[in-house]
Amino acid sequence: MSALHRSFLHDFQLMSRNGGLDSGGVERQAATAADGLNRQWFAGWLAARGATVHYDEIGNQFGTFEIHPGAPYVLVGSHLDSQPRAGRFDGAYGVLAGASVCSELYRAASAGELELTYNLCVVNWFNEEGCRFKPSMMGSLVYTGKLELETALATEDVHGVTVRDALDTLGQRGTESIPEAAAYVEIHIEQGKSMEENGQTIGLVEATWGARKYEFRVTGEQSHTGATLIEDRKDALLGASLLIAAARRIALEHDVITSCGELLILPNSPVAVAREARLLIDLRSPDAARLDAADAAFAQEVTKAASEANVEIETLSRNAWDVKNYAPEGVELAEQVVQELGLPYTRIMTLAGHDSTNVKDVMPAVMLFVPSHKGTTHNEYEFTSDQDMLSGLDMLIGVMTRVAKGELA
Amino acid sequence: MSALHRSFLHDFQLMSRNGGLDSGGVERQAATAADGLNRQWFAGWLAARGATVHYDEIGNQFGTFEIHPGAPYVLVGSHLDSQPRAGRFDGAYGVLAGASVCSELYRAASAGELELTYNLCVVNWFNEEGCRFKPSMMGSLVYTGKLELETALATEDVHGVTVRDALDTLGQRGTESIPEAAAYVEIHIEQGKSMEENGQTIGLVEATWGARKYEFRVTGEQSHTGATLIEDRKDALLGASLLIAAARRIALEHDVITSCGELLILPNSPVAVAREARLLIDLRSPDAARLDAADAAFAQEVTKAASEANVEIETLSRNAWDVKNYAPEGVELAEQVVQELGLPYTRIMTLAGHDSTNVKDVMPAVMLFVPSHKGTTHNEYEFTSDQDMLSGLDMLIGVMTRVAKGELA
């Protein structure tokens, strides 16, 4: 095992202690104490390896390794925040792998073993998960100009704490100018099971799936669960339940992916019919026609649910993302690397959102996957083997070397 | 308007300020600061009128008016706690009406205008609503020996605060011996709309509706809302939603009342499929056969929902209450009073649970209703007119006088 491999595995163990659970998982929701601790630990790791640590105004954390003063940077990274009771690989693997590769290439370039065109920068995007503060991918949305900084900073968690206050409490909201970047590279666990089942070690992400995301407010009327006649009820929780059940029926009929991850109920008291429910539902598919058909069918179900539960259902927001490609030159560059390494690989689409889905729209981006055991993810028993992590690291070194030499942009 | 009527309406306005909302409603969940404030206010009201205030070990608040030292008491009362964003009448009307009647009869007996056999005691049962601490009717359950004191005291709210700590914080958990009671009287708003629609001012409650109450735990597996294939999901929120939708279908098919008032979801994060959901569902009916049929049909739906959502559904608790009568002598006694007063009345069943549904099992109890405008309840816009409240007060004086003379027990 190479020194880089050894130190990566050791560092990954150390990082996983920050916000670590007994199960081996982690809980580091964005800008909580555990996330702050891990970000601080990571800043120390970077400084110890000669990087300069910067924070931009939305709390994205950058570690720059400067080789040619004034030259643009190649960005590599992912996110260190996690879901509640989550796995230790999602996001964190990509950040530490990117940092390890930057550090190694910086050492080699400084020692004259390697000639690079660009500088190197690892990034830890703030709040990719979107569980404490919505929306997800907040840091990369602000970075790419898709979300207003002020809107993001004013976002509140369920306790009314804003992103601004949470970052300031950690002392990790910055004002620093963002390194000028020429290209972006990210490696991540697949979060699906197809690569493991097909014996593929590396995934070359070609495109994102399309998605329709809805936020609904169901308005009913608070009343007594016993004394109010069924025909007089305006039960917001029933309305929400009908939407959730309908979304699943549509997923099966139209062969799309659907889910409701969050449902808030007021007052959620054992003997009160709910006056209000708010929920997020999404539909996803790699096929635009299927997605449109499912979207249309779901709109009818919304009307039906409102009438059945005798409630009002408002669509507070509705976002549509179409299937979108990553730069084909990036996929080809990565394919050359994986073939040189002789690793089993596949071209693949991503069902999950990643920071690269935002960043790819403003610069060429390469997105790589390593396998997830059984596809288990957003779960403390998420697992990727050391061997797969190290194959990913080798892959990332190869890709980063070429990109930093100017072969992509 | 009599002095008693005038002072009752004034006092009711004063009481409604404690935990009052701008809408005219109140929020005084059990043993919160607002409930504590109101209980303290009520203790002052009682002391000022010559009552002695006692607290038993579960925080039931008693105001005793002693006429014949050593004689048993007639208990009258209801509860001062409320649902979140609730009306000012539910429970509070009955406590203040009972206290006003006790005070008036005590004055009359002390002045030699009236000869009573029993002493008088008003009671404010602790935590009837069951929203902050489950189960509902906690104070009367413990009083009647149906719930262990220690179990009740150890009950936690969602923040982990126990009933014991909440009562101790208010300084309102007592150790005092409970007055020996011969009979119980309670007046309450109907919480349904039938009396208003039929022009009836007084309801004589003959029986409770039957109920089946279930607490379910749905166990799924936490995973990614986007990346996890539909066929691999074990979505606890979907399982819960299917149960809620099924309960409503059964209510319509079998002509019973059903509801889910509370649903807890873990982790309830926008991009995580829920690993667990806990929910309360009940079925209610005045007809035992309909209730049994609905119960059997629902059991099949539970199995179906578990299979459809690919989750495990455990029934954590299942309580069955059959239709149960109030003492017929009490209904007859109250009927004589209402006929003497010449008020329009009806015999009625109660769909809602009340403290009297517990107390009636250990001593003769009389339960009276006054109308609720449109049946609106567990809602800040709950309303009962002054005239109806005062008719109820007259009714209560008549009933209490007879019961305190020993005509019921």
From TrEMBL, chains A, B:
Hydrolase is among the record's keywords: yes
InterPro entries for the chain: Amidase_Cbmase, Bact_exopeptidase_dim_dom, Peptidase_M20
Annotated Pfam families: Peptidase_M20
SUPFAM superfamilies xref list: Bacterial exopeptidase dimerisation domain (SSF55031), Zn-dependent exopeptidases (SSF53187)
Keywords: Hydrolase
Domain of life, source organism: Bacteria
Family: Belongs to the peptidase M20 family.
Name of the protein in its database record: M20 family metallo-hydrolase
Species assigned in the record: Kocuria atrinae
